[in-house]
Amino acid sequence: IQVKDKDYLVVGSTPEEMVNLGYKPIGKNFPVFLHPKTKEEYALARTEKKIGKGYHGFKFYTSPGVTLEEDLKRRDITINAIAEDEDGNIYDPFNGKDDIRNKIIRHVSDAFIEDPLRVLRVARFAALDFEFKVKTETLDLMKKVVLSGELKSLSVERVVTEVTKGLQGKNPDIMLH
Predict the structure, then answer these.
(1) Alpha carbon 14 to chain centroid distance?
(2) Model-level pTM?
(3) Which residues of 119-153 are buried (b: 16+ CB within 10 A; e: fewer)?
(4) Which end is more exposed in the chain, N or C (fewer Cβ atoms within 10 Å of the end residue's Cβ)?
């Protein structure tokens, strides 16, 4: 699949340092900044804790001490928890490359259930390529999120975005299933 966007992660910095370097913050409580020239998004390494309902019900913890692995652990699926540094070194603490090779969609941790959008993202990823299979354990967590009623907290715009992307896949009926 062709790369459509890049996510930049900054480890070992602070919001104040980012602003001093000319980056522009996006929002008040979200540790993401726009590059002064390219306008690409740079996110501070962070951990998060669920404090309320829905996609926005998180408190973020950023610190220069948050490690790359800690940040990657909060990701939804293993194939989205792979990083590459500026020298081309690959960091894959949750074996996402193996899951790509084996055509598996698997959650990173049980924190998966904290964000209802992840249910739609997994369904979208499954629809992109009919050879990828969602692990039973991940499907079980998806069902738990659905039964919790948390999907109702998602904005219509987020749902439409994920469903539209899924419908553009090779096997869109998988997303609907």
Answers:
(1) 21
(2) 0.84
(3) bbbbbbbbbbeeebebbeebbebbeebeeeebbeb
(4) N
